[in-house]
Design brief:
Blueprint (H helix, E strand, L loop, with lengths): L1 E5 L7 H10 L4 E7 L18 E3 L8 E5 L3 H12 L6 E8 L11 H11 L4 E7 L7 H16 L7 E7 L10 E3 L4 E5 L2 E5 L5 E5 L2 E6 L5 H6 L3 E6 L6 H7 L10
Parallel strand pairs: 1-2, 1-5, 2-4, 5-6, 6-7, 8-13
Antiparallel strand pairs: 3-4, 7-13, 9-12, 10-11
The structure holds manganese (II) ion.
Manganese (II) ion binds next to strand 5 and helix 3.
């Protein structure tokens, strides 16, 4: 099995290294990842400047690895279309340093790399560690490979993106289990802090304070807060079928004169 690994924390991040090391048990790994951190870049792609890339040795891993001066979505595009000799059978993004839960995934570069995989119709998994900033991803990586192993054992994940979050834990035994969840909702307040620069001009710094998690027991947020791995299947059809039903009775026409 050919596996493409990307992320949004950058090619030198601890989470990507630990994932690539452990994922070798599943097949041939190739890494294509941003040359610097791209967290919260969402699904941006680079169209107005050239993309440059270079091959590097990822420490002791002995795998094909490229940095790209672009976004996570750029990396997966370039990897699948150009850099990799064969089309990957699986795209894995992560392990992100920080959770990607609920509505926050709209902004997530980690999830966007996996969405890009899905746009190629390649099964994709986004992995995020819901702990504090960490250099030790060994427990998260152990949980991640256990999840990936079971996902692969369970059969076809065609046309599927799994958003996986792993709770903070010092030991794998402290994680309570795995829950299949839906996305919750996160709401923020006072998102911009106004400050003055040394020349007296105002500037704004995004510093959202979380005011509410929508924490229904079936949500990803609830599962993580209770110490479970959360696994949410995501699709990218943003159509509101409910709204189509509601507005289909509207009287809409163009005034053709
Ligand atoms: Mn990140």
């Amino acid at each position: 099995m050919n596996i493409l690994i990307s992320n949004d924390d950058g090619i030198y991040s601890y989470g990507l290294y630990e994932l690539a090391k452990r994922a070798k048990e599943f097949g041939k790994i190739a890494v294509v990842a941003p040359d610097k951190e791209q967290s919260a870049i969402g699904h941006a792609i680079t169209m107005h400047q050239p993309l440059r890339c270079g091959k590097i040795e990822l420490r002791d891993l002995n795998i094909d690895a490229w940095w790209v001066n672009g976004t996570p979505a750029d990396c997966v595009k370039l990897g699948v279309e150009t850099l990799l000799p064969e089309r990957p059978d699986l795209v894995i993004s992560g392990i992100n340093d920080g959770e990607n839960l609920g509505t926050d995934i709209i902004y997530s570069g980690t999830v966007s790399a996996a969405i890009e995989g899905l746009l190629f119709s390649i099964p994709s998994i986004a992995l995020s560690y819901a702990g504090k900033c960490s250099t030790d991803f060994s427990v998260a990586a152990e949980a991640a490979v256990q999840v990936i192993r079971q996902v692969l054992d369970n059969g076809k994940i065609d046309n599927m993106l799994l958003n996986v979050n792993i709770p903070e834990a010092d030991r794998i035994e402290l994680i309570k289990g795995i829950k299949i969840t839906r996305l919750g909702v996160k709401r923020y307040r006072n998102s911009f802090e106004k400050r003055k620069d040394p020349r007296g001009n105002s500037y704004y710094w995004l510093a959202g304070e979380l005011i509410q998690d929508e924490m229904g027991e079936e949500t990803d947020i609830y599962a993580i807060r209770k110490g479970y791995v959360s696994l949410t299947p995501i699709h990218i059809d943003l159509t509101s079928y409910e709204a189509i039903k509601k507005i289909s009775g509207w009287n809409l026409s163009l005034n053709n004169c």
